[in-house]
Design brief:
390 residues, single chain, three-stranded antiparallel β-sheet, Rhopdopsin 7-helix transmembrane proteins, 61% helix, elongated, two-stranded antiparallel sheet, 4% strand, mainly alpha
């Protein structure tokens, strides 16, 4: 005999005009994010599987690439949950518990937590690679990826398993954890969102401070007449390095504000609801529309910022051009298999893949097989710009 579940008091039947309009906005934004994330995911998959020279080495070992790849998977799951809004619109109601309601709730639970934790993972990797100049081995990195996905799945399934039938119910303009489970909302969802937000801000801010410290303490200075000629060349090199750092710093600031702007309103609204100061449904609709844009924004930020000037390894050596002993500016990656440039005396090595997947990839190449560039003194003191078309 089939068990009949009691309809949650938060169900809407029929939908109000404002809720219906809000669901349309959420569904449209979710569809755009889904299309963007799926397109990027498929293209990255194509690169791994079919591009010569990439499937065996570069993508598998480029850790930032793989972190962004997993972030797109999280964005696909999250965006799919908001596309379900069109189902509720077609039915002119939002009711739960039900199969569709449970499906939407599970997808939101997985997608929100996963996107936050993968964004945090990118921030952690950026911090350790740039500030600490350290990365883990490929084997350890893969194990950490599996562990992180296992944590995400445990957080998404432990609640429904314990509550059995009525864990998910209408919560505003979509289905999510029922308001009866305040504690589960906190420790299975929002505590991880807040950790991701706070952690990302701290890590990116620390990385920015490190980069600005390198800039402010790396000004070239001539220490004698015999260095007059090289000073001009080194000043140009230092200026180019500073330009790179400033551009990447701007993108890091964009990552911070984009993530906070998209996730903080909804998280704050739910937190207010837990202390009996629940905002209006219009607030949740607006906040839901923002978070439904996450997939599209991630694609724009993490894919659209990778075509940058390819001077790698933001370290003291790449910014401090004049230390009084005629040291040549050096910017290099983890492996040096260089070939000469006959006209300018510039030495450069290009690894298997001529592409940066993000601003971080450019900065992190000190420990990955991306591109290795060695700058030597030349008579002209010119810099070659390297652009990697996709």
């Amino acid at each position: 005999m089939e068990k009949t579940l009691k309809v949650a008091s938060s169900s809407l039947d029929p939908l109000t005009n404002s809720t219906r309009s809000g669901m349309i906005a959420i569904g449209v934004c979710g569809t755009i994010s889904l299309f963007s994330a799926v397109s990027s995911f498929l293209f990255f998959t194509y690169r791994i599987l079919y591009w010569p020279g990439l499937s065996s080495q570069a993508p598998a070992r480029r850790q930032v690439f793989m972190l962004i790849y997993n972030l797109f998977i999280a964005d696909i799951i999250q965006a799919s949950s908001f596309v379900i809004s069109f189902w509720w619109i077609s039915q002119n109601k939002l009711i739960g518990p039900s199969l569709v309601c449970d499906t939407q709730g599970v997808l939101i639970q997985i997608g929100d937590v996963a996107s936050g934790l993968w964004a945090l993972a990118i921030a952690i990797h950026t911090f350790f690679s740039i500030v600490k100049q350290k990365t883990v081995s490929h084997r350890t990195f893969v194990i950490l990826l599996v562990i992180l996905w296992a944590i995400i799945m445990i957080l998404a399934t432990v609640g429904p398993i314990r509550a059995k039938d009525n864990f998910f119910a209408p919560a505003g303009a979509w289905c999510w954890v029922s308001e009866e489970y305040h504690a589960e909302r906190l420790y299975l969802h929002y505590i991880w969102i807040f950790i991701s937000e706070i952690g990302s801000v701290i890590l990116y801010t620390s990385t920015l401070c490190h980069l600005y410290f390198l800039i402010n303490t790396g000004t070239p200075r001539p220490f004698g007449p015999h260095l007059a000629r090289s000073y001009s060349r080194n000043a140009k090199a230092c200026s180019a390095s500073r330009t790179i750092v400033m551009r990447c710093s701007c993108h890091m600031v964009m990552y911070i504000f984009a993530y906070l702007g998209l996730t903080l309103p909804l998280a704050a609204g739910r937190a207010m609801a837990m202390v009996n100061r629940e905002p209006s449904i219009e607030f949740f609709i607006a906040a839901g529309t923002l978070i439904a844009c996450s997939g599209f924004v991630d694609v724009v930020l993490y894919v659209g910022t990778r075509n940058l000037l390819a001077t790698n390894c933001v370290t003291r050596e790449s910014i401090d051009m004049g230390n009084g002993n005629g040291t040549q500016p050096l910017v290099e990656g983890s492996k040096n298999r260089c070939s000469s440039n006959t006209s300018s005396g510039m030495m450069m090595e290009e690894a298997n893949d001529h592409k940066y997947e993000s601003c971080e990839s450019m900065l992190l190449s000190v420990n990955t097989e991306v591109v290795s560039v060695t700058l030597r003194d030349s008579h002209e003191g010119n810099f070659n710009r390297i652009s990697w078309p996709i």
